[in-house]
Amino acid sequence: MTAMIKRLFSAIILATFSMALNAQGYWKLESKTDDYTMEKEYLISHYSRGLIDAIYFVNDENLKVIRDYKGLTYFDTCWNAAVYNDGKIDDYTGTIYCRLINSGDDYEEFKLDDMTISYDGYAGDGKIDTNGFFSYFYIACEPEQLKKANYITFQYYDKISKQTISRKISLAGFTKAYNSIRY
């Protein structure tokens, strides 16, 4: 009986530890080859809870930040897009506040005005439906900025949920993924 309790306790600790790691996410180096130029383009993707929530485009030095929306949760938005706007949600232009957090009170903060937040569906045509959709925006970042920070946070108005939201993306593992690029 005692051995069974120990195994159960160990399983609970292991499950808790793995959930904490999954919540933080991880960075993964990926590449694709341009069919026309035959140049290899490197991407560093951040996965959290099984979804991509950020992609760093190495060649362009741009970070694409992605937010996922469950379609049925936002049924009215999906309905309005389908009925009134050919399955599309219009882009939103607004201010995004960004912080690169090194540790504790050590951070670099900047405000980005007139940033475009776009919305797309998961289907090949990009139309919004009840299967869900996502929003995204691009931030210009040098790799050295991301390498020295522990987190990057964003605060902006989300027109879908009609509230100001905050996003926090861990940069743990970004340096390792970036340094494994081979040209």
Layout of secondary structure:
Layout: H1 2-24, E1 26-33, E2 40-48, E3 51-57, E4 62-69, H2 75-84, E5 92-103, E6 106-121, E7 133-140, H3 143-148, E8 151-158, E9 163-170, H4 174-179
Antiparallel strand pairs: 1-2, 2-3, 3-4, 4-7, 5-6, 5-8, 6-7, 8-9
How would you describe the overall organization of this protein?
The structure is a single chain. The chain has 183 residues and is of the alpha+beta class. It has one domain (2-179). The chain is built from 4 helices and 9 strands; from the N terminus they run αββββαβββαββα. The longest helix is centred in the first third of the chain and has 23 residues, at 2-24. The chain starts with a helix and ends with a helix.
List keywords for this structure.
single chain; 183 residues; alpha+beta; 9-stranded antiparallel β-sheet; 4 helices; globular
Summarize the structure.
This protein has 4 helices and 9 strands.
Q: What is the radius of gyration computed over CA atoms, rounded to a whole number of angstroms?
A: 19 Å
Oligomer: single chain
Residues in helix, %:
10-25%
Structural class: alpha+beta
What is the approximate shape? globular
Strand content range: over 45%
Series of H and E elements: HEEEEHEEEHEEH
Number of strand segments: 9
Keywords: Signal
Signal peptide: 1-23
